[in-house]
Please model this.
Amino acid sequence: MLQTRNNTAIRLIFMFLSGLMLLFIIAPLLGLFFSTSIPGLFETLRDRQVTSSIGLTLSVSSLFTLLSGIFALPLAYLMARKDFRGKAIVQGLIDIPIVLPHSAAGIAVLGLISRDSALGRFAELLGINLVGSPFAIGVAMAFVSVPFLINAARDGFLAVPERLEQAARSLGASPFKVFLHISLPLAKHSIITGLVMMFARGMSEFGAVVIVAYHPMTTPVLIFDRFNSFGLNYARPVAVLFIIICIVVFIALRLLGKKKNGG
Amino acid sequence: MLSCKFLEYRVGDFSLSDFSLELDKGDYCAMLGPSGSGKTVILELIAGLRLLKKGSVLINGVDYTYTPPQQRPVGILFQDYALFPHMTVYENIAWPLKIRKIHKSVIGTAVSGFAEELEISRLLGRMPGSLSGGEKQRVALARTLVIHPLVLLLDEPLSALDAPLRDNSIALLGKLSKKGITILHVTHDPSEVDLLANRRIFIGPEL
Model:
């Protein structure tokens, strides 16, 4: 009897705390949505600066997510399958962008692409200034978000039984074919999750992006710019619109991933 | 035919030293020994899935000691069958031929042939997850046999099967053996190879 009463009390406490946690997440978003008028939202949709910033944000984030995949997936596979000296250090390196303050990450990326760097000088020889370019935005987005892809893909590869890869080798496949035909498809769900997380994290990045490229403006930078220059009412519809787009894209990609996995 | 000379290997606490084995074409050799005695490791060394520390593996006089697994004329049937879960039965059997860039029609004929022989034609459209143990074993065998290995390595092939399925599998393995393929069958249960093996070796824990 006492046991049942205890269980009920614990369940109620947990439900109450969980409710507060969810409210904490939902309340600011609801507040934002309710304080934005529908006509204001439509007007924002017609604002060229807003639409081009959204286009820039989505396209750069998706392009650099896919480009990063070319390098991140082999690294994730090595981290899952190989034991080597210094592996813990490499894992630490992979996780560094997650723990860095994003403004510091921006400064680091700026050091990589500024005119003083080898890459910056090389680009300058070709007549390109990397700072303030979509390339800079993409590098900053990728820098802060690529650990999500690497770690998710690594976990995916870890979940693929090594036995299947050995069977594939014994059936005549080279290591690359094993990776392509066996490991990659079987880790697909985690890889898609990682890509979605990287894309979402990249497109919402502000701190690092604003340091390497204030212009052209990504949407998070535009929201900050409007808030800073014109105040909350002017920034709010852009924020609402961007949140809606983020949620729609996030759900769409998740559904796509599930559909491809037959789930 | 299959000649393993003074194989030496070490991993963790396990070590194998001076292991030698000579099999003739068509031999059916049972490798017996308790769990943890290193039987599976020996199969993996012959298949090239583990790198030998010392010794050599020769098949038909050709030295395959340093040849990667995909270039050895060896097929291995794993204890858990290791079917690719994201492919249908047909795709599993066809896969070794597909990666060799063999024409689709040739692949189709080969798959149908082996499926018929192993009585799994009705399973070709199924996914491995929906198969019974015995069915999985036949599919894995068909997938291994399509590459026409000279040596077939079987790792506890009957351990996961119920009694009636075991009898079927024993009959099937006997049929394969009569075709002249050299078979090395690892098991901890001597009774399952009574009707099959013409050679027996015992792997003791002292190895």
Observations:
- The mean pLDDT of chain A is 92.
